[in-house]
Amino acid sequence: MIIKITGSKDANDFFQSDEFYSNLGNETEYTIKVEGAADFDWLNCEELIDILYAGKKVHLDFSSLDVEDFGFLYDWFESLDIDPYTEVNLEFSFPKTAKNLPAFDAFYGINFLSVHIPEDCEAYFIKDDVLYSRRENSFVLEFCPNSKKGTLVVIDGCKHISDWIFCGSQIENLVLPDSMTSFGEHSFMDCDELKSIKFSAKRCSFGDVAFNGCPKLKQIELPVDTKLGDAVFNNCDSLEKITYAGTKAQWEEIYPGNCFWGMKEFSVHCSDGVWKESV
Question: Which partner from 141, 199, 245, 251 sits 20 to 30 angstroms from 178, CA to CA?
């Protein structure tokens, strides 16, 4: 079903119409083409929220609008209070004018989420289904669909992965560029299939709980200039080996002491020998 929205009254009238209710049981997909809404109060229509909770596919198509700021979608989705990993199927299409998309950590854990952006958008672009924002002389990875599987190769020039972006994803292997310098908080939490991380940067900062709960992750290599947040690798049951480019003394300086909780015995292979601790 395709629904065209030009204003809040138009939207509310449709969602309360006989046409909407007569097709409610038959439709599995709703494309809502927003063509001129002055405000977006209609997003709070009870009927729209009901079809999201019912697992119907909802495509919010803003692509024809001349709008820069879509940050309001963050507060809107948070207000729905949808539990993580609920069967929600939500799709966004944004215009080339978009300069501020919602931080997608609000949407973490929903089973189906996809984002589309035109190729001529100056602030954002999509590569291999992954959304990046353009920053001065660098890129930031902003969103990856939970449905993505297998190996993800992050593009050259990307420096940061935002908070919660891969939380609960099915990614198995992660290949990172030399440009990568930081991981956001919870960025890869509960990635049940993540097995390996190929990491070649010279320095990197890991946000709190960045790789917490990755049961198949067995080993990781870290550069000398590493900063570890709290609980970074907690509950990574299979993690056995960390290769650290610095010395044992340098490892002692950066090791916070609380980022490998829940594992048995692991080793850190430093440039001057093996450092061990039972946790």
Answer: 251
3-state secondary structure (DSSP) of residue 19: helix
Q: Where does CATH 3.80.10.10 sit in the chain? A: 128-279
Which CATH class, in words, describes the domain spanning 128-279? alpha beta
- Count of beta carbons in the 10 Å neighbourhood of residue 156: 10
Q: What is the mean pLDDT of residues 143-160?
A: 90
d(CA 43, CA 180) in angstroms, rounded, equals 37
In the chain, the percentage of residues whose pLDDT exceeds 70 is 91
Q: In the structure encoding, which two tokens stand for residue 276, read together?
A: 């061990």
Q: Which two tokens stand for residue 147?
A: 């449905």
Q: Is the pLDDT of residue 246 over 90?
A: yes
**Residue 216 is which amino acid?**
K
Helix (H) / strand (E) containing 14: helix 8-15
Query: Residues 68-124: pLDDT tens digits?
Result: 999 999 888 888 877 766 677 889 999 999 999 998 887 876 767 889 999 999 999
Q: Which residue has the higher pLDDT, 16 or 255?
A: 255
Residue 22 C-beta-side C-alpha neighbours within 13 Å:
4
- Which secondary structure element, helix H or strand E, spans residue 125, and what is its range? strand 124-127
> Are 94 and 72 within 8 A, CB to CB?
no
Q: Do residues 170 and 159 make contact, with C-beta atoms less than 8 angstroms apart?
A: no
- Give the β-pairing of 196-198 and 112-116: unpaired
**Helix, strand, coil percent values for the chain (each to nearest 5):** 15, 35, 50
Q: How far is CA 44 from CA 50, 78, 168, 218, in A?
A: 10, 12, 27, 44
pLDDT bin (cut points 50, 70, 90) of residue 277 is low
